[in-house]
Write a structure and sequence with these properties.
Elements: H1 5-13, H2 21-32, H3 49-54, H4 69-73, H5 77-82, H6 92-114, H7 123-147, H8 149-158, H9 165-182, H10 191-216, H11 230-252, H12 259-269, H13 282-289, H14 293-312
Length: about 325
């Protein structure tokens, strides 16, 4: 990529006529991006693509998420549990239209930036870049507004003890915006499926971070720690971190285990057992839940595979066509 630094420096020293200082700063930020992301669609390259995408017969309703904002200002238990404000749900056709428009606007910005090749943009081109970017951000905001109820629903569903409700909403809102940026409507899935998965994963990651922080930063000083072998302490900490991570995944069921799989894992690995006690054997677990020893082994194998996949692929990009919200 060409070095655009001189151009960026000149933008504020030699302003482009007709652009405000705020617009110049925004333009400078856009020019400094290594890549302006968008989700491609073959319709963007069609003749008269803009007319086809923006003049569609599918009317979009007016989006209003005003019911949600008071909850962000006053997060009382009563407001969280008793509020019954209505929210808009887009049809599949409407959802396709708004996502195509959003990504077409981003496509146009990326296309215009790509034609500069390190040169200072003209007044006309600078205005086009800013206008298309503004339209993209407005559509991004509208998509987030119409789906903001998903954050509330996932926060109530998760009910993480280690996170304040307000923190969960903030983390969920950020995950929702990232999901809007990455979603590919051409795959034929509802955005809610993809977004709910992203929000739940964000809650899980935040919960793990807070758990690790408390473990590494104990509140009370322990004199015994001074006499602990550093290598033993490191090994113990790593094991504790691993246990805490698996426990968080199990409690919130982030790996989508079935009730039987969760029960087998709890018994086999002693997640809730007192310290020093031994986990149950395959045969003992089978006797407790009423299945054969071989069936317990099969269920355990499937559950461990799900847990391992979740830990190794804990990001939004791990979304597959088989992903769904239970």
């Amino acid at each position: 990529m060409n070095d655009l630094t001189p151009t960026h420096t000149d933008l504020l020293k030699r302003p482009i006529p007709g652009l405000s200082t705020a617009e110049l700063r925004l333009l400078q930020q856009l020019l400094e991006l290594e890549k302006y992301d968008y989700t491609a669609d073959e319709s963007f390259l069609l003749p008269k693509a803009q007319k086809l995408i923006f003049d569609t017969s599918e009317d979009l309703p007016e989006i209003d998420a005003s019911w949600y904002r008071p909850l962000l200002d006053s997060l009382t238990a009563h407001a969280r549990e008793e509020h019954t404000g209505k929210h808009l749900v887009l049809t599949a056709a409407q959802e396709k239209v708004i996502f195509l428009r959003f990504n077409y606007c981003r496509f146009r910005v990326a296309e215009l930036l790509g034609t500069l090749n390190g040169r200072r943009p003209t007044k006309v081109k600078a205005r086009k870049i800013l206008d298309w970017h503004a339209r993209a951000m407005q559509l991004r905001h509208e998509i987030a507004e119409v789906n903001v109820a998903l954050v509330m629903a996932m926060a109530k569903r998760t009910r993480a003890e280690d996170m304040e409700f307000a923190d969960m909403l903030g983390e969920g809102n950020m995950a929702l915006l990232r999901a809007v940026d990455k979603f590919d409507v051409s795959r034929g899935f509802k955005f809610s499926t993809y977004a709910c998965r992203a929000i739940l994963k964000a809650f899980g990651r935040q919960g793990m971070k807070q758990t690790k922080y408390r473990q590494h930063n104990p509140v009370h000083f322990d004199p015994e720690m001074e006499r602990v072998n550093p290598n033993d302490l490191r090994d113990q900490t790593e094991r504790s971190d691993g246990s805490a991570e698996v426990r968080t995944i199990m409690v919130q069921n982030l790996a989508r285990l079935s009730p039987l799989e969760r029960e087998v894992i709890h018994y086999r690995f002693g997640l809730d057992a007192p310290r020093g006690s031994r986990p149950l054997t395959l045969e003992q677990v089978g006797s407790r839940i009423g299945v054969t020893k071989e069936r317990v082994r099969q269920v355990q194998k499937a559950a461990v595979a799900k847990l391992k996949w979740f830990i190794e692929n804990d990001n939004v990009d791990g979304y597959t066509e088989n992903a769904s919200i239970v």
